[in-house]
Amino acid sequence: MSDYRSSRGPKLAKHLRLLALAALPFAATTFASTSAHAQAWLRDRTYQEGIGIRVGDVELHPGIGAEVGVDSNWFVRSHVAGANIVNGPPAAPIREAGIIRITPSFSFGTLSDQRTNGEKPSFTYRGSIAGSYREFIGTEVNDQRNMNVHATFRGDILPGRPVGLGFFAGYQRFVQPSALPGVDLSFNRSDINAGAEVIAIPGGGTLDMHLGYQFYGALYESTQGSAFTNFTHEISLKNRWRFRPKTALFTETGLSFVTYPNAGRSILTLNDAIPLRTRVGINGLVTSRISVLAALGYSATFLANGALASTSQFDSLNAQLEGTVYLTGTAAPANDPTALTAISTLTVGYLRDVMVGSAQSFQGRPSYIFGGGQNTTIGSFTGLDKIYGRLSYMFAGRAVVSLDGYLDILSFPAVEAAGALTPSFTNYRPGASLFGEYRFADSFGLNATIDYTQQISDVQIPLGGGQVFDLNNRRVQATLGFRWFM
Q1: pLDDT of residue 120
Q2: Which of 91, 109, 167, 463 has a beta carbon 3.0–4.6 Å from 126's, enabling a disulfide?
Q3: Residue 419 lies in a domain
Q4: Which CATH number characterizes residue 470's domain?
Q5: What does the alpha-carbon distance between residue 465 and residue 4 come to, in Å, rounded to a whole number?
Q6: Contact 313, 271 (CB under 8 A)
Q7: Per-residue DSSP letters for 63-104?
Q8: Domain tally, the chain
């Protein structure tokens, strides 16, 4: 352990990195959700893109959205009051904010299936870029203006053929301020990923196999936050066997290598890890209106420094059980008869998994449905049990309403700080989101979003000198806006 880690004293300045570590998991969850809801229409391409602009063999889809609204707790501070709490009143009062947000977007790619009648050329690609600029109104938030960015690209060589190759890359910028007033500390970060996969579809397409590699990186911009920068290399194998027209068995296995190159700058131990995750399951229609996804597997973290008191491993089953009712029927794209889409659906489910490093920001695992990615920084992993549901309904082809609800049960390993060991603990994170949009024309709509999130905890992390960091917080965000898209 470095001299810095063993230093003592009540001054808050000596514990900035600990405060960052304690605040990040909750700020990250909330801000990831904010980024997702800044572009709520991106959840379903049925509602995202219009006919587009055709230029030769390329489709262009420009768009822009604007929103105004309020945020009840921009700094994600605790609502628990106490003279010794550094991130709650009276030392750190909760600050509401008025928000103006503008989100231009642009996507491009080879011609869609609607224009090619489902036929695939020898090379296809799709890319997108979107940015959200935010302006703030309110006490202490006036200087919080910022820009989030999201960009993706994927290309496929010989798609749908017996052997093909896919390659992809992505970039996301997240803005996460400090919960501490008067402290020049933020956790803004850039998440990047890149990878490729070999796709084999032997025979008539009943079986498809994906062997891939991906790199993920979480790059923190500020000097104080750089301790949490981490890199992940992942090798994965995914197989799917279609034994009915709209039902398939699948297996997924991934082995990752996670490193924290600047871990020595943190007063907490940030462990390198070699997490393993594998599962087998079934996904498809039970009846013409009901589909089920069921999966069971194993996950383990294999953290370094296993002899330390603050190091505990995750070694347990992962599981998922999800059911969807298609309220207004189903449709299957011609190029993928196992894919299921619908105008109106009701989904309920349960998921058990573990989060390690930054990979989940891009992986799109069911773990992070309705909440975005979370970069694990308090301890070296976060165990997750999630109960979730979603109702999505479209009225007369004009109005869309989506209601999401979830309860996350988050399990954290022991935390060693300020000479004290906080035993492993569990937090609860309930949340809900209501999104609605009315489309006056095929390419113009008005929308409204209301988000609620809360962190429930009985843990306060000691910082020395009698000071603590409280892990409770709650937040409401509400916006009204419009979008134009093609």
Answers
A1: 76
A2: 109
A3: yes
A4: 2.40.160
A5: 16
A6: no
A7: EEEEEEEEES-TT-------TTBTTSTTTS----EEEEEEEE
A8: 1
- Summarize the confidence of residues 217-236 as an average pLDDT: 84
Instruction: Provide the pLDDT for residue 306.
Output: 64
The amino acid at residue 51 is I
Q: How far apart are CA 300 and CA 245, in angstroms?
A: 34
The mean pLDDT value of the chain amounts to: 80
Residue 3 in any domain: the answer is no
Q: What mean pLDDT do residues 43-52 have? A: 55
Burial profile 119-156: b = 16 or more Cβ within 10 angstroms, e = fewer: ebeeebbbebebbbbbebeeebbeebebebbbbbbbbb
Instruction: Report pLDDT for 412.
Output: 82
| Nearest Cα residue to 344 out of 278, 299, 272, 395 | 395
Write out pLDDT tens, residues 422-449: 888 899 999 999 999 998 887 899 999 9
Give Cα separations from 81 to 16, 85, 138 (angstroms).
20, 7, 21
Per-residue b/e over 241-263, b at no fewer than 16 CB within 10 Å? ebeeebbbebbbbbebebbbeeb
The pTM of this model reads 0.82
- For the stretch 150-180, pLDDT in tens is 999 999 999 989 999 999 999 988 787 878 8
Cβ neighbours for 120, distance < 8 A, ≥ 6 positions apart: 159, 160, 335
**Which residue range(s) make up the domain with 230?**
12-485
Q: Report the C-alpha gap between 268 and 24 in whole angstroms.
A: 13
* Residue 7 domain flag: no
345 belongs to a structural domain: yes
